[in-house]
């Protein structure tokens, strides 16, 4: 198992607000992703649960390079790029598989057509959709937790859908496809 905190500490200072936000959120996402993965395993579906936990702990590592003061990040890049930035950071230390999770977890994935239609600052426009089960479970688990309100309980399915609705029908359809694979987290013991 990777020492994810030591990787995070290459870019964040323990005790700082951005570190607390990242680690708290990532732990929430990792715990849910592991529980969802275990449910798959219990139903005979193979998934790399150790990798899922590592990737969930590192999925938002790029946020420190973005301009997102609400979560104590004072970088220069637009927040929409935090996954791409995270991939670059993890690729630079040889964690290519983990980097793919970073790049593909935003929303319920983003298509090249959406990048173009919404004028998102992602160059070149390309599909950034989770493909493997491991990528999908981290993307899905992430939708149930807020970085700006880490003390809140997990979002309900209704709240998670509502937060994605503003991005359009294709985003919601991709989310519903993830629901079909992983089920409603409300049926799990999240304590």
The CATH architecture category equals Orthogonal Bundle
Strand order of the largest sheet: 1-2
Question: Briefly, what CATH class?
Answer: Mainly Alpha
Note the beta-strand portion: under 5%
Descriptive keywords:
Hypothetical protein af1432; mainly alpha; 2 strands; 9 helices; two-stranded antiparallel sheet
Commentary on this structure:
- With 191 residues, the chain is mainly alpha-helical.
- The protein has a single domain, classed as Hypothetical protein af1432.
- Helix content is 52%, strand content 2%.
- It has 9 helices and 2 strands; from the N terminus they run H-H-H-E-E-H-H-H-H-H-H.
- The chain has a two-stranded antiparallel ribbon with strand order 1-2.
- Strand 1 and strand 2 form a beta hairpin.
- It is globular and about 40 Å long.
- The two termini are 23 Å apart.
């Amino acid at each position: 198992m990777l020492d994810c905190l030591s990787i995070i500490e290459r870019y964040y200072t323990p005790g700082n607000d951005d570190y607390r936000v990242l680690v708290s959120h990532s732990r929430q996402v990792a715990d849910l992703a592991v529980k969802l993965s275990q449910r798959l395993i219990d139903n005979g579906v193979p998934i790399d649960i150790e990798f899922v936990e590592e990737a969930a702990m590192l999925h938002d590592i790029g946020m420190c390079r973005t301009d997102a003061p609400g979560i104590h990040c004072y970088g220069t890049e637009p927040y929409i790029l935090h996954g791409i930035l995270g991939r670059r950071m993890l690729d630079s230390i040889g964690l290519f598989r983990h980097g793919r999770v970073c790049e593909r977890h935003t929303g319920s994935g983003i298509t090249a057509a959406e990048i173009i239609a919404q004028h998102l600052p992602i160059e070149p426009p390309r599909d950034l959709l989770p493909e493997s089960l491991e990528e999908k479970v981290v993307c899905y688990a992430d939708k149930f937790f807020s970085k700006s309100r880490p003390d809140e309980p997990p979002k309900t399915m209704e709240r998670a859908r509502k937060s994605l609705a503003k991005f359009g029908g294709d985003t919601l359809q991709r989310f519903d496809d993830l629901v079909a694979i992983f089920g409603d987290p409300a049926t799990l013991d999240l304590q």
